[in-house]
Amino acid sequence: MTDDVLKRYRKSIDNIDAALVCLLAERFKITQAVGEYKATTGLPAADPGREEAQIARLRRLSEEAELDPEFSEKFLRFIIDEVIRHHRAAQQG
C-alpha cells in the first residue's frame, strides 16, 4: 500500500530537483561564455572579490529564506570551484 501523502511530497521534491538541474544547466551555460570571454580578453579565471561578494549575498538570501547559510556557502563554493576549473581549461585552449 502506498502512502498518498508521502507520494505527493516526493512528487514535489522530484519537481524541485528537476528545476534545480535546469537552473544549474543554464547557469553553467552562462559561466562557460564568461570563461571563453575571459580567455580571449586575458582576464584571470578567478575573481576572488566577486566570489566573496556572491557568497556574502547568498548567505544573506539564505538567512532571509530560513536556509542554513553554511550549507548555502558550501553549495556556492562547490559551484564556484567548478566554474573556475572550467575557466582555467578555457584559457589553456
Automatic annotation (TrEMBL):
<keyword id="KW-0413">Isomerase</keyword>
<protein>
    <recommendedName>
        <fullName>chorismate mutase</fullName>
        <ecNumber>5.4.99.5</ecNumber>
    </recommendedName>
</protein>
<dbReference type="InterPro" id="IPR036263">
    <property type="entry name" value="Chorismate_II_sf"/>
</dbReference>
<dbReference type="GO" id="GO:0004106">
    <property type="term" value="F:chorismate mutase activity"/>
</dbReference>
<dbReference type="InterPro" id="IPR010951">
    <property type="entry name" value="CM_bact"/>
</dbReference>
<dbReference type="InterPro" id="IPR002701">
    <property type="entry name" value="CM_II_prokaryot"/>
</dbReference>
<feature type="domain" description="Chorismate mutase">
    <location>
        <begin position="1"/>
        <end position="91"/>
    </location>
</feature>
<dbReference type="InterPro" id="IPR036979">
    <property type="entry name" value="CM_dom_sf"/>
</dbReference>
<dbReference type="Pfam" id="PF01817">
    <property type="entry name" value="CM_2"/>
</dbReference>
<dbReference type="InterPro" id="IPR051331">
    <property type="entry name" value="Chorismate_mutase-related"/>
</dbReference>
